[in-house]
Write a structure and sequence with these properties.
With 230 residues, this protein is of the alpha+beta class. It contains 9 helices and 9 strands. It is globular.
């Protein structure tokens, strides 16, 4: 075998291996994304959240939109917004009760967003229980086990705070909602509340773990997860 033929074979082999690698992030509307969404488990949180999933009302209200998406999916007491009276419904306006404003004001969220600690504290004021988890305390195995357990139809919901650039997306820190775990591909579904910008995406466990372990410059602490229960 001459050197030129050997070089060609090596190049073909290397290219084939690269092409066969699955991307870390799979778009909802891609062929692979359609395959994944066709096998969303019947007990996944997705089926509850899809009916309450909202678009953030400003480009910094990702935290509030994520919170009300989850609260409206839960059997908790809901306030009445004058826009929808007399029907009780959480909105990105009435989320800011007098008690919530003592923790963080709408103006601060508008300017800076919300930290993981502030998310946990404000959700608690709406009558739910929360578990606040720093992303840098989890390895892939622990994260996988946690999400496999919490993303089923068991009354638990997961809010995720991550760095967009870790997913190859434009932007900085962001909040959204996790909706399903696909064991076969080892991916989780992010329902992105910036719906004008990104469709939902399927993200590999390792990629997600790296994205939530990044440091939030406002709090100087790692991003992470907030798990919400009744």
């Amino acid at each position: 075998m001459n050197k030129m033929l050997l070089l060609i074979m090596l190049l073909v082999s290397a290219t084939s291996g690269f092409a066969g690698e699955e991307p870390a992030v799979v778009d909802w509307n891609s062929p692979a994304g359609k395959t994944l969404r066709a096998r969303i488990p019947a007990d996944a949180d997705y089926w509850q959240l899809s009916t309450t999933f909202v678009t953030q009302s400003t480009q910094t209200y990702c935290s509030v939109a994520s919170a009300v998406t989850v609260l409206n999916a839960m059997p908790v007491r809901k306030p009445v917004d004058p826009v929808y009276a007399p029907y009780p419904y959480f909105t990105q306006s009435n989320y800011f009760t007098p008690d919530v404003i003592k923790v963080i004001s709408p103006q601060t969220v508008l300017a800076m967003g919300m930290t993981r600690k502030q998310m946990a504290e404000t959700l608690t004021l709406h009558g739910v229980n929360v578990k606040n988890i720093a992303g840098d305390t989890l390895n892939d195995e622990r994260l996988r086990s946690l999400l496999r357990k919490t993303l089923g139809d068991d009354g638990q919901f997961v809010l995720v705070n991550y760095l967009r650039s870790s997913l190859g997306q434009e932007g900085g820190g962001h909040w959204s909602v996790l909706a399903a775990f696909d064991a076969q591909s080892d991916r989780v579904l992010i329902l992105d509340v910036a719906r004008y910008k990104y469709a939902p995406v399927w993200v590999g466990i390792s990629t997600l773990r790296q994205a939530i372990a990044t440091i939030d410059t406002t709090s100087n602490k790692a991003r992470g997860l907030v798990i919400v229960t009744r």
